[in-house]
Recover the amino acids of this structure.
């Protein structure tokens, strides 16, 4: 088996707060995260804001210095690189950000914007112009756009330019940080199908960060659900959505407003979490979800659960430990769901 | 055949033939074009459409928040039997907050960052609905009036009603100390303080996380049930509209293209735009998703002739460009504006499956316009 393109192992990123006389604890934005992304596949990372999704992407691409843990790209650890080393690796990985407008220089035409990464990679000028035309065509824009400024473009078009700029240096890994959350659904669908086309055409690998579960369902091969800097559930996308095991995944799914009865039936009923996400500076002891979890027991408050393998997914919840008690309600609803989805498989 | 709005007995808000345009450097932008809508008593009505379809401008015209000029507003807006556009400015302003409450989109930027939340809410409770007065009378009422503590208590009670965690503490904090969900709750409380009959909610909670968003929506629907209020909600999320509202208006390019009860819109969507929007939503239960609608909302300075949706419509032909499509009613509540439903039209009637197929087809042939 070939090694995964990107492997993150026990990644930790803590931000120190305060000055000399301030001994508040550090913000544990990412706290022991491990995952792998295989060549040409998509890993979806979901969670509420403040759960550390974007921090992971920024650690991978070197915007943040890693506190502890390893990030292996093509088998090589890149977590403690010098800036010069990073410069070489960066053309292998690129990032697309959430807000398409603020990522584009308002005083550069699209042509100039797209030439920047090529210039940085010492592509000769004639070659650059040819490449820019190719790139525009690749993302479904025509040459009319070459001499336009960002303010003349719609949100979807700007995001296409951002994607074109990201793939300009022929990277193998794209980090997509909520690339469609600022767009309308009709445009979002377009961008997603563009990303799918690019993936099959260029063999790209995606780390897709979003808070929209239904989007992940349509797009990602594997899904990791994050909460307060930890992965709570990790597995095959179908597996995670067919049988959401972690109370947090279930809560996220039940909170989505859906548009027809079949979808409504698909959502786990009555799986709400209370309150809001706590500050990562002061994480709850034990299981991090327990103050909000409807199923929490005494054991949850005492020690931190490990990721437990259930079928082909991994879940960080005591309910799936051998000999766990107090989770009958959760297991009952899971069983009920399994029988329903077996019966409804035909359509 | 022209059909008027579904006749509601005694609606709280009735908007007829509302048009709003703006004078700009590029010419006259015709942003809202002949909108008819009505909100019944204790009814929740949603306006759904993409960004730039004129939804927020419509509500701003209703509440009188548009400066004229540069805006040009025509048509009539009747609230509780009074024609709003013929009211004197003073009376109209005093209606805002008292008769019509508004919750705006971005919770973090809608509160004043230099005042404590308590102060802002108490001011609303004390001065809301009173016509604007000079600084001297403000100071007199603020510091020498007796009803300040009453108002404070009322603000606190309302905060409790919207389930603000630690309401006493929240009253003493500045907006930057509150989370997005708490700010949104505070804004809803502020809108409810003077017990308006109609609440206009402009994308409530869109900026928040799904779990919090869900809570805010259920909070809103509880409050409406309790207070017998009406809501006019603006959203671009069809799922939200389905969960909360009784009736839905679909808006595109400054016109209402389809209206109907929630069941009618979701079970039998008629207009190709509604169908396209529905098809573009990623599904939770399966991994099939259409490729979205080509193009983007029209330029309002030079809108397309005829049906404004025709440059993006998978069913468009010459007849769409030549005439404004007639309004066709299907039931007392459902109607749509599309040529394909005219009795003498040869084209096929848009259906969900056909729209899905056509959208995916056009996506393959030419994707250069999104």
């Amino acid at each position: 088996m070939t090694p995964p393109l990107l492997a993150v192992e026990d990644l930790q990123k803590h931000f120190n707060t305060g000055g000399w006389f301030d001994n508040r604890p550090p913000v544990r934005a990412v706290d022991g995260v491990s995952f792998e992304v295989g060549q040409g596949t998509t890993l979806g990372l979901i969670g509420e804001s403040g759960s550390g999704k974007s921090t992971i992407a920024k650690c991978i691409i070197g915007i943040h210095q890693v506190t502890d843990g390893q990030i292996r790209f093509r088998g090589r650890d890149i977590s403690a690189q010098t800036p010069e080393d990073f410069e070489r690796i960066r053309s292998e990985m690129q990032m697309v950000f959430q807000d398409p407008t603020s990522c584009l220089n308002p005083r550069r035409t699209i042509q100039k914007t797209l030439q920047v990464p090529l210039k940085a990679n010492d592509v000769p000028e004639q070659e650059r112009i040819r490449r820019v035309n190719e790139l525009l065509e690749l993302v479904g824009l025509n040459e009319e756009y070459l001499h336009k400024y960002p303010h003349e473009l719609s949100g979807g078009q700007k995001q296409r330019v951002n994607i074109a700029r990201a793939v300009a240096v022929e990277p193998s890994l794209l980090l997509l940080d909520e690339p469609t959350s600022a767009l309308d659904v009709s445009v979002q669908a377009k961008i997603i199908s563009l990303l799918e086309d690019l993936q099959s055409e260029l063999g790209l690998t995606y780390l897709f960060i979003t808070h929209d579960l239904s989007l992940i369902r349509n797009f990602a091969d594997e899904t990791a659900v994050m909460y307060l800097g930890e992965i709570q559930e990790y597995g095959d996308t179908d597996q995670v959505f067919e049988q959401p095991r972690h109370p947090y995944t279930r809560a996220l799914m039940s909170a989505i407003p859906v548009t027809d009865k079949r979808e409504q039936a698909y959502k786990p009923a009555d799986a709400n979490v209370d309150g809001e996400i706590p500050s990562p500076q002061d994480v709850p002891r034990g299981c991090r979800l327990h103050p909000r979890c409807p199923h929490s027991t005494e054991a949850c408050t005492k020690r931190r659960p490990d990721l437990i393998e259930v079928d082909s997914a991994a879940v960080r919840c005591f309910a799936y430990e051998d000999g766990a008690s107090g989770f009958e309600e959760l297991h009952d609803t899971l069983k009920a769901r399994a029988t329903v989805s077996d019966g409804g498989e035909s359509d | 055949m022209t059909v008027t709005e579904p006749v509601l007995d005694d609606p709280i808000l009735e908007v007829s033939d509302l048009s709003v345009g703006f004078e700009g450097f590029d010419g006259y932008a015709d942003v809202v074009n002949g909108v008819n809508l009505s909100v019944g008593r204790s009814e929740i009505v949603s306006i759904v459409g993409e960004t730039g379809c004129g939804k927020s401008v419509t509500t701003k015209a209703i509440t009188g928040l548009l400066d004229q000029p540069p805006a040009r507003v025509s048509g009539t807006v009747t609230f509780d039997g009074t024609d709003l556009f013929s009211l004197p400015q003073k009376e109209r302003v005093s209606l805002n907050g008292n008769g019509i409450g508004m919750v705006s989109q971005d919770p973090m930027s809608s509160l004043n960052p230099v005042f404590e939340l308590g102060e802002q809410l108490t001011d609303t409770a004390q001065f809301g609905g009173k016509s604007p007065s000079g600084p001297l009378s403000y100071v007199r009422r603020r510091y020498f009036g007796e009803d300040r503590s009453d108002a404070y208590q009322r603000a606190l009670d309302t905060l409790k009603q919207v389930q603000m965690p630690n309401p006493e503490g929240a009253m003493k904090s500045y907006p930057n100390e509150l989370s997005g969900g708490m700010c949104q709750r505070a804004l809803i409380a502020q809108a409810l303080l003077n017990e308006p009959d109609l609440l206009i909610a402009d994308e409530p909670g869109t900026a928040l996380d799904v779990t919090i968003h869900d809570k805010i929506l259920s909070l809103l629907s509880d409050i409406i049930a309790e207070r017998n209020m009406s809501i006019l909600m603006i959203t671009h999320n069809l799922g939200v509209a389905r969960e909360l509202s009784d009736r839905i208006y679909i808006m595109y390019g400054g016109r209402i293209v389809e209206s109907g009860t929630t069941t009618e819109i979701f079970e039998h969507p008629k207009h190709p735009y509604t169908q396209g929007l529905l098809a573009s939503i990623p599904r939770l239960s399966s991994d099939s998703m259409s490729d979205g609608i080509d193009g983007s909302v029209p330029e309002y300075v030079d809108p397309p002739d005829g049906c404004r949706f025709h440059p993006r419509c998978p069913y468009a032909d010459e007849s769409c460009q030549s005439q404004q499509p007639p309004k066709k009613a299907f039931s007392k509540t459902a109607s749509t504006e599309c040529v394909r439903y005219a009795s003498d039209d040869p084209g096929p009637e848009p259906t969900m499956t056909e729209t899905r197929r056509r959208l995916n087809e056009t996506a393959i042939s030419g994707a250069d316009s999104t």
